[in-house]
Design goal:
The protein is α+β, with helices and mostly antiparallel strands. Strand 1 (89-95) and strand 2 form a beta hairpin. Helix content is 38%, strand content 20%.
């Protein structure tokens, strides 16, 4: 009798041990699933924050917010109204069929508008600004204009596109507006340089040294015209490059006095004038991929949990039916 009780005790202990192991496994799986779920939710929220922040930065630098002030034809009243808000506004730069279409400012130093809009408000996107050492009427032999290389091709982010030969060849014209005058721009080179290279960043360049400057630029050119006019002033557009430390990507253009561009507007079917914003679809980056994977994993885990719960309910029903029989 005693041995029989011992056997039963052993069986109960084994059954209790199996229950404990089963419960431990279930709790561990439960915890791991929800920890993973929590991590994935955090990753998703972080990715969403990054994308929202990116959108806010791009929207701050979107050239459409300034278009109502753009000087067109003989109507420069709106530009003068903008200039009245900030006397540092000196002109307007447009590269045709690109996102480069912004007012130009000139500060007391080159740091003044690094993180300020043309209206003086703080913004990481900064402004398009003329080197403080240049004359504000663009009468120097070499006038240097700077802008941040921003995502979404806003500000001077679009300069990187000129490294493609086809794009370079099809986007070489534009307009510079200053002091009531319009100047036709012709881009003749896209090249790389170090941000501290005084051979390139030389606002006091004289006409006697233009040929030497052009030769130095040609040595670092991605693309450059064979014949470059040496008797015209040069507009140099500079932005940061991630290719090298202190690297810069630049566009060089000649410019001469021209006619004001015609105002272009889009009209809908009802006859109302509407603004058609430029929309740019970026290539998928790591953040986009991360968000996509996170969403997929979230759906997979939720589906697995619901399926597991459903299977458990089915098992319980079958067990009850078996007991009732």
């Amino acid at each position: 009798m005693h041995s029989a009780l011992s056997v039963y005790d052993g069986i109960y202990k084994v059954m209790d041990l199996k229950k404990i192991i089963k419960m431990t496994v279930w709790v561990t799986e439960f915890i791991l699933k929800y920890i993973c779920l929590a991590i994935l939710v955090l990753v998703f929220l972080f990715g969403l924050y990054v994308e929202t922040d990116k959108y806010n930065i791009i929207s701050q630098a979107d050239n459409s917010k300034y278009q109502s002030y753009k000087p067109v034809s003989d109507d420069t009243l709106s530009f003068e109204q903008m200039k009245a808000l900030n006397n540092d506004i000196i002109g307007w730069l447009t590269i045709n069929d690109t996102t480069i279409d912004y007012p130009i400012v000139q500060g007391k130093t080159n740091d003044t508008y690094i993180n300020r809009t043309v209206l003086g408000e703080f913004s990481l996107t900064g402004s398009i600004f003329l080197d403080f050492r240049n004359k504000s009427d663009f009468t120097d032999t070499l006038s240097i204009v700077y802008g941040h290389n921003m995502i979404g091709n806003v500000m001077f982010g679009g300069i990187d596109l000129f490294k493609d030969k086809e794009y370079f060849d099809s986007h070489r014209t534009g307009t510079l507006y200053c002091n009531g005058n319009y100047y036709d721009i012709n881009i003749f080179a896209c090249f790389r340089a170090n941000g501290y290279d005084t051979n390139i960043y030389h606002p006091s360049l004289t006409s006697d040294h233009v040929r030497q400057w052009l030769g130095y630029a040609r040595e670092n050119a991605v693309y450059m015209e064979d014949a470059v006019p040496e008797n015209m002033p040069i507009l140099l557009m500079s932005t940061c490059s991630s290719e090298t430390t202190d690297g810069r990507t630049l566009l060089a253009a000649s410019f001469k006095k021209g006619k004001p561009p015609a105002q272009i507007q889009e009209e809908d079917e009802t006859g109302f004038w509407i603004h058609i914003p430029s929309i740019h679809i970026e290539e998928w980056n790591v953040t986009h991929l991360l968000i996509g994977i996170t969403i997929w994993l979230l759906v997979t885990i939720i589906f697995t949990l619901l399926k597991g719960k459903g299977n458990k309910n089915d098992s319980q029903k079958q067990q009850k039916q078996g007991e009732s029989k």
